[in-house]
Amino acid sequence: MTTTDGERLILASKSAARRAMLTDAGVPFAVQVADVDEDALKTPGVDPVELAVELARAKALAVSRHDADAWVLGADQTLSFEGGLVSKAPTLQAARERLSAMRGRSHQLHSGAALARNGQVVWSGVDTVEMKVRDFSDAFLDAYLAAEGEALLACVGSYRLEGLGSQLFEAVEGDYFTVLGLPLWPVLAELRRAGVIAS
C-alpha cells in the first residue's frame, strides 16, 4: 500500500513489535528513534496510564520538531502491578524476581500512542489490557529465562506474548495489539483521518 497524497509517516520508536504491526497492517512508514529522557518523566507517584500517553507524546514531538512536514507516531507502554509502576528489568535476575512476584496474579499493560505534525500533538490515546499470570513452576521459569535470555530486558514485563512468553499466562483481557505495545485500531483510525492511509 502507499500513503495518500504523498503524506509521510515516521514511527518514533525502536520497537520491533510496533514496526511489525504497522508493516503487517500495510502502513508505509520510516523509523526515526526519538531521543527522549524517559526517566525524567517517571516522577514518583506518576500514574502509569498517564505516563504511557506522556511518553508517546514526548517521542512524537521530539521527532516532529525535526521533520515538520511528516506525521510522526510516538508510542510507549507502561506496566501497573499492585498499584505501582514497573520498569524494564535491568538484569535477568531482576526479571526472575519480577516474574516470580507476578506468578498467580494480574497486572495491567497500558499502551499509549500519539500523532504529531509540525511540532504539535494532534491526537493521543491509550488502551489497557489485564494480564492474568498463571501459577507456573520454578522449572518452567528457569527454562523460560534460559530460552529467552537478554532479549527479555527490552520488554517492560520481561516477556513477549508473541513468543514463549504466551505460556506464562492463563488469560488476557483486552486487545492483542495493545499487549504488543500499540493501540492499533485507534492509531489506524487517526492515520485515515489524517490522510496518511486510505479511508
From TrEMBL:
GO terms assigned for molecular function: nucleoside triphosphate diphosphatase activity
GO CC annotation: cytoplasm
Keyword Hydrolase attached: yes
Gene Ontology biological process terms from the UniProt entry: nucleotide metabolic process
InterPro entries per UniProt: ITPase-like_fam, Maf-like
EC numbers for this chain: 3.6.1.9
Top-level taxon: Bacteria
Pfam families in the record: Maf (PF02545)
Reactions catalysed, as given in the entry: a ribonucleoside 5'-triphosphate + H2O = a ribonucleoside 5'-phosphate + diphosphate + H(+); a 2'-deoxyribonucleoside 5'-triphosphate + H2O = a 2'-deoxyribonucleoside 5'-phosphate + diphosphate + H(+)
Keywords: Cytoplasm, Hydrolase, Nucleotide metabolism
Localization terms from the record: Cytoplasm
Active site: D76 (proton acceptor)
Cofactor(s) needed: a divalent metal cation
Family of this protein: Belongs to the Maf family.
Protein purpose: Nucleoside triphosphate pyrophosphatase. May have a dual role in cell division arrest and in preventing the incorporation of modified nucleotides into cellular nucleic acids.
NCBIfam families on file: maf
Name of this chain's protein: Nucleoside triphosphate pyrophosphatase
